[in-house]
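Below is just one:
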Amino acid sequence: MKTTSPHSFHIPVMGLAYTIDTPVKVAKYGITSVISIIEDYLVEQMREVLCKNEQIEYVNIPITERDYRAKRITAYLDLIQEIIDKQIEEIKNEEFSTGKNITQYFEMLPDDSTTKALYNKMLACNSNEKSELEKKLRKSITAGKIDVNIMTKLDKTNYDTDGNELPTQFSDALSALRGYATSKIKSSIIFSAGLNPRLFSYCETFEDFYPNLHGVINKKIILKVSDYRSALIQGKYLAKKGLWISEFRIESGINCGGHAFISNGIPLGPILEDFKNKRAELYNELYIECSNALKQFGRNPFINKPELKITAQGGIGTSEENAFLIDYYNLHSTGWGSPFLLVPEATNVDDDTLSKLKNAKKEDYYLSHSSPLGVPFSNFRNSSSEVQRKARINKNRPGSPCYKKFLSMDTEFTDKPICTASREYQNLKIQQLKNNIPNQNLLAYEIEKVTEKDCLCEGLGASALLKNKAKLSHKLSAVTICPGPNLAYFSNTFTLKQMVDHIYGRINILNNLNRPNIFINELQLYFDYLKKEIEDQYNVITNKKLTYFQTFKDNLIKGIDYYEELIPKIKQSNANFNDTIMKQLEELKNSLNLLPLLQTT
């Protein structure tokens, strides 16, 4: 399905900082990207950086100011919009010549776009017609959107400087939402990690999330979901409030960067097929619900039927995969995340980490339990944060100092929540384990699980500060980076144009590793995860866990059956593609049937 955006891909949010100023770098080329806005300290530091770069006066918003979190976010987003508006005006006034941003804008467009065709016509025509075509092209230039992301689980209660609990609206997620809602940008907010009733309900208090007199929604809502059921539940929850979901963003449960919401092992293909087959049903149900709610609450109705986009992301690596997903599943666009970590023009990766990523091996990317959220987390073995974490353990000082407290959610030992990656928690937990577990091998195993947790608040923000030569937060320089496993197949730094050309099939920048198809790669990751989970719990398995493992396996088998029917429909330049992938599917099915506790009799 064609999209009204200049491009058929977007750059998803990556960590707290890797895309925090990406719109300033790519929106002028029509590329949409996503900022994480939950970390207001980092947002404020980056606002200072951008003000300095743009020679704009910077006025600090201190923590002593009432509602400082929301104000910082609003000020940052407004600044980014101001910068991009200026960039677009400058581009529109440039000459069409080699090296100019205006030329880059049109050269990066997909080859099948009507605007690209007009550009090519302009290049080939005579001087009389050329001037008119240039005017049309300048008028067509459209900036990419400044979308923002809130991970719904990051919504701790906050306290004033005297230790008194603040009202609900000052929680992390609600403050971030307010910061976005009161900004002047017109874009979308992405809610990820599931339903947060108080956050979703808070959207009702801001007019920009509803149709205006012209039926236009200035601030749209996107839900990142793992399956059709969660889309329907969350979509209906919001529709009953008159809040329209403009897009369902489907992400692989395991073949992605950051936190991996693995659920029950249903692969991406069957999930996308579900959306493809039920799209009309989903749209009609949500549209009727939302329209009735708007009428009931006396709000402006839709003048025209609103658009509902379906997009997908997670592990896409070739133009052929990209095109197949869009064409077969009728997607509006796709998300390309981790590969852009190797594009210095687009993201914030410090030189040391960038060098390590360029030279990384496949096994350096792994699924860890380092997140204090208790959710599997894509990690990088060679990161400086991993080196720091192990050094602290060796010095008998496990855990991190906890300054920002965004992940302070545990009350096992304290009345006020603390973070499981903090030094305070880990010391208390280790002492508890020592008092209760006499078996030294089991004790070491349990302590290792505790100390694997690492500080993400500081680590995920450090890279942007290092790259921009900004003051480090609390003098902590260790970098946490969370690429998806798909990055193993990219081994260099690239220009923005090279990455975009790769996405559209104009060049190939993959390394020489034998890269499986996106569907096979995801199945293999799921199999490896299931196998490890069974091995880790083999001696302490419960009936509930055994049922979960069996359901997980059954879903993977069903996924393989689905792909065996799908593969003949995929057109590939490689003549042996079908035979190879069908053999890989058969091998995966056989391996699943040989798993301990789950053997097929």
User: Anything to note?
Assistant: The longest helix spans residues 268-296. The first strand starts at residue 9 and ends at 11.
